[in-house]
């Protein structure tokens, strides 16, 4: 399923795009925006994998918006102006669809996005500089990640067998881009949990399978900004 968000400064264009998307199988419009600033303030908390961006908008154009979006979200540009095509593809976007948009052309763009998303999900390892050198880590072995207390630029990664590895100079945004989105979620500003490490959860807390002393298990407090996406991940 492709979950997409639309950004276009024209309300009629948004309505038309929604109408087209409703006719394409396996595509759901999660939310639509007509203001780039509001879009950017919310996009990281929205459970979506494709963003449809109009290029020509007042204040901030779609190219500028795209530069600030997490790489885990695939981008489809829409515009009435062909002169933006080269610059758009320099940003490594999925597709560039000219207005007026036809459903066949939009369907083709979504098919390209679906192929890229599937390839992302199939990747089962990350590779990064760590405290033991450049290291390949299989994502299926990761239990939990947190910001290092020694250096906030680093991330402490806990494997399921209890081994700890320090990822050097890596922020959460880039780290989440490398991890399979269906298997990992940010819980608060400082912690990421593997879905397979969740034993139980409420709206405020996650009980993990990670054992502590005295037969207790690690508990994580859910940050308000991440609650909605976490509940959606767990189907709530």
TrEMBL record:
Residues the record lists as 4-aspartylphosphate modifications: 54
Keywords, comma-separated and alphabetical: DNA-binding, Phosphoprotein
Asked whether the UniProt record includes DNA-binding among its keywords, one would answer yes
The GO terms this record gives for MF are: phosphorelay response regulator activity; transcription cis-regulatory region binding
> Quick one: a GO biological-process term for this protein?
regulation of DNA-templated transcription
InterPro entries noted in UniProt: CheY-like_superfamily, LytTR_DNA-bd_dom, Sig_transdc_resp-reg_receiver, WalR-like
| Entry GO terms, CC | cytosol; protein-DNA complex
The record ties this protein, via SUPFAM superfamilies, to: CheY-like (SSF52172)
Residue ranges occupied by any Response regulatory domain in the UniProt entry: 3-114
Name of the molecule in the record: DNA-binding response regulator
Question: What taxonomic lineage is listed for the species of origin?
Answer: Bacteria, Pseudomonadati, Bacteroidota, Flavobacteriia, Flavobacteriales
Q: Which domain of life is it from?
A: Bacteria
């Amino acid at each position: 399923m492709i979950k997409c968000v639309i950004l276009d400064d024209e309300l009629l264009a948004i309505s038309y795009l929604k109408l087209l998307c409703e006719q394409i199988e396996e595509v759901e419009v999660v939310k639509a925006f007509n203001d780039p600033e509001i879009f950017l303030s919310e996009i990281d908390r929205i459970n979506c994998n494709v963003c449809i961006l109009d290029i020509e908008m007042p204040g901030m154009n779609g190219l500028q918006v795209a530069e600030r979006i997490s790489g885990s979200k695939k981008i489809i540009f829409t515009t009435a102006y062909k002169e933006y095509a080269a610059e758009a593809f320099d940003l490594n976007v999925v597709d560039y669809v000219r207005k007026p948009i036809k459903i066949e052309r939009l369907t083709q763009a979504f098919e390209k996005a679906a192929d890229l998303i599937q390839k992302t999900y199939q990747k089962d390892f990350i590779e990064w500089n760590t405290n033991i050198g450049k290291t390949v880590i299989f994502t299926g072995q990761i239990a939990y990640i947190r910001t290092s207390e020694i250096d906030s630029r680093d991330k402490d990664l806990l494997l399921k067998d209890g081994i700890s590895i320090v990822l050097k100079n890596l922020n959460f945004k880039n780290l989440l881009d490398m991890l399979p989105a269906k298997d990992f979620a940010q819980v608060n500003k400082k912690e990421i949990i593997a879905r397979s490490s969740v034993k139980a959860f409420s709206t405020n807390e996650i009980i993990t399978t990670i054992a502590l002393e005295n037969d207790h298990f690690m508990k994580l407090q859910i940050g308000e900004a991440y609650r909605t996406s976490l509940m959606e991940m767990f189907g709530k």
